[in-house]
């Protein structure tokens, strides 16, 4: 039996879930993996939560460095979140020759490559399965199952909170605020839910998927990010009439030797497999050049799905220590065959657009004239019944257009006197 000593740093929802799983599955883990996993330290800044630790052989502290100084610790579990202190803890743990498990997506999105390189230099294993997709083993699938492939595309619904809000709005029962409150009550939303709504949480996760899946050294700020804050129930309704569902989609795709990396609300055809991913569920749809298309679906957040993945990472590292077969995260720049990022303005896509215009003769002609001058071809247009005395929604689908042209056209249209509210435009993915 291989003894594995754990230092658990961060005892919030996931940390306490990890402790529960390790305690309840001790016999199971021994029998299945030949590991005797013991939590030697629990660390949290909040003294109140430390009172909940079932002590036994476990020591408690509010100073992470107590854990890092302990020579008997084999694996440090970082669950404190944030990027500053967490980075310091992880780097110091690696230099103290402790293996690391983390669920910290923001940290890996910004410093993943740097951390993996330090770990590689120190012969230390880092695992982060819970950083993307909670209970979905997508990181392991990319590192192992897809290793022989060159990826063409990743589409991901990877923020449960946004998906929950959009689903509830589409059902017509909730408005945005009520849906967000319920996601917070259920414990899915980030401590700062702005990260969910703004698309940043999805972008953090997309950066990790790109780093591991495409082996591309993505610079986080090169990811285009747009959240769901501007989506109205009416847009979901109009999209439905055209046969589409609105999802917050994280997209990475190979395009003529460069990579598109973007997060934004997206119209997906109702028949698309991701259109049917509802509520807090996450799904990642991948296309590799050998394997073809694969779909991963499951609970993307929550105490036990996430804690379960953290414990799987612990077992993975423990098993490799037992068999003396270390496995590092290698990030090569040479094999991805990508020469850079495609800027958002260079992307060609179809659009859904909604204009809030005064209902009077010539309005439609003015809008379509501006679109035509910017090379934007309209595929269909509908003028809806007036909702207020003056303003009428004009809803359109375009053919494929250049994003830069669309941006310019919308800016010009929004400056017209006849336009009474900011125009809405949502990209369409029909592949
Ligand atoms: N806030 C995240 C979500 C939690 O809603 O998906 C999981 O990363």
From TrEMBL:
Protein EC: 1.1.1.3
SUPFAM superfamilies recorded: ACT-like, Glyceraldehyde-3-phosphate dehydrogenase-like, C-terminal domain, NAD(P)-binding Rossmann-fold domains
A Gene Ontology molecular function term of the record: NADP binding
CDD domains: ACT_HSDH-Hom
Gene Ontology biological process: methionine biosynthetic process; threonine biosynthetic process
Coiled coil stretches, renumbered: none
Active site (UniProt): 205 (proton donor)
Keyword presence, NADP: yes
Residues the record lists as binding L-homoserine: 190
Binding site for NADPH: 105
Gene3D superfamilies in the record: 3.30.70.260, Dihydrodipicolinate Reductase, domain 2 (3.30.360.10), NAD(P)-binding Rossmann-like Domain (3.40.50.720)
Primary enzyme class: oxidoreductase
Catalytic activity from the UniProt record: L-homoserine + NADP(+) = L-aspartate 4-semialdehyde + NADPH + H(+)
Pfam families reported in the protein's UniProt record: ACT, Homoserine_dh, NAD_binding_3
PROSITE patterns: ACT, HOMOSER_DHGENASE
InterPro entries hit by this protein: ACT-like_dom_sf (IPR045865), ACT_dom (IPR002912), Asp/hSer_DH_NAD-bd (IPR005106), HDH (IPR016204), HDH_cat (IPR001342), HDH_CS (IPR019811), NAD(P)-bd_dom_sf (IPR036291)
Similarity-based family: Belongs to the homoserine dehydrogenase family.
PANTHER family reported in the protein's UniProt record: HOMOSERINE DEHYDROGENASE
Name by which UniProt lists this protein: Homoserine dehydrogenase
